[in-house]
Write a structure and sequence with these properties.
The complex is a heterodimer of chains A (265) and B (268). With 265 residues, chain A is α/β, with parallel strands linked by helices. Chain A is 36% helix and 23% strand. In chain A, the strands form two sheets. Chain A has a six-stranded mixed β-sheet, with helices on both faces. The longest helix of chain A is centred in the C-terminal third of the chain and has 16 residues, at 194-209. With 268 residues, chain B is an all-alpha fold. Chain B has twelve helices and no strands. Residues 234-268 of chain B have low confidence and may be disordered. The chains are: A alpha/beta (265), B mainly alpha (268).
Amino acid sequence: MTTNQSATTTPGLDTGVNDLVGDVRGAGLELHGITKRFGRNEVLHGVDLSVRPGHTVCIIGPSGSGKSTLLRCINRLEEPNSGTILLDGEDMTTADPDRLRSRVGMVFQHFNLFPHRTVLDNLVLPLRKVRGLGAEEARDRAVRSLADVGLAHKRDFRPASLSGGQQQRVAIARALAMRPEVMLFDEATSALDPELVKEVLDLMTGLAKAGMTMVVVTHEMGFARQAADHVVFMDQGRIVEQGEAATLFERPSSDRLAGFLSKVL
Amino acid sequence: MDQLQTLLQSFFNVPDMLVVLPDILGYGLWNTLLLAAAATVVGIVIGLVLAAMAVSRSRVLRVLAGIYTDVFRGLPAILTILVLGQGLAPLFNTVTKGNPYPLGILALGLIAGAYIGEIFRSGIQSIDKGQLEAARALGLGYGPAMRLVVIPQGIRRVLPALVNQFIAIVKDSSLVYFLGLVTSQRELFRVGQDAAVTYANLSPLVTAGVFYLLITVPLTHLVNVIDRRLRTGRAAVDNDDGRGTGTTATPATPATAPAGAVTIGQDG
């Protein structure tokens, strides 16, 4: 997995991942028997999922299948009703959720950058308040992280003046500056105009190659096929089928996956 | 014609209008502004606490904030000012030395807090919940996430409503005259009222009214300017020279901010 990414990436190129290799250390992630109810409606029925360190898992499935809820259970934005979350073997199910979240980065469909702060301050804020870095160190690390996603020159802009693709890359940089061991992507390209999708997917691909552990909820089957070590198909709150991308896409063994693929491919 | 003359004489008697000017400029105007500003500060502090309680996850805190808001918003200001100003006077005598002025500010502030709390609450609740989620996902606790991310955006959105509230406080500050202030503490209304009694003519009160309008009308227009700016999402003042304008520079509002959010009023 440790291809010489930095040597093949042109420095200063607007898209691309510079020097990510040295910083990335993906952790192993295991979910056991995760259930989640909203009121009386159970949306996850005991889901197990295992992600090896440095691997990328794509979760696909129809809307309402519970894939986003599962993703949000991993960093406990939704608290599971039962089940366990293990990060490198350490049980994170009942510990302080802030400890878990400081090791797990998340990227949202609608970016969720802080609009009242500059791009740079979006990165500096959590570095100072969560990581406890001093002003100078936080700033240096934020600038480096922005450079990694090719957007250091936008540091003094407000998020609203950036394109959607650039905003999402800032959101990724904000998560990466925290040096997470796992990255969660919740339909990170679904809100983007078609011509802006590629720059974000390229960045995600580079991050996967650099050895980050990634769980990606996506509708981008091309990305799943190309970048995922493992693909999970969910429907109605359960994992129906999982395996290597090629196997899953070429020879789906369940009718439900075959039906789903026939609609999206 | 006689009647018109009588009307003009009782409202716009120029010598009587001018006779209060020294007192108005000497202390009346200043006292009104001081009362209103101090009450607003008290009201903002109370309002922030109330809003934090109103959006908290604790039912007890939400109910307590609701009771406070219902009581102070539901009572006539004059009643609250009289009851608190006179009722609390013995309690605070050692501090206030019989001076009703601080108690007037306190009473005005307690009332304003109820309204400002509702303004802040509506502003905070108008912020997309993705903002809190993103902050929490980065590892910030609930308190810091609210304080650093959600509340600053909410307050910016309700600036017009806050200025409106200040206008209401400027007008309500006239009610402290019921507490009986010594001459140098009297505000616009009482200064006009004193002169009106002395000269048996309403013209001094008209002068006081003019000064109220001089305060409130420009503020009303300020509200409109802020409101328009928030609605149209004026472009950020961005520079690319690496020095930055800092976060306290011209507020940059995203064009995506719901335009309706800024008009949510104190009764929302």
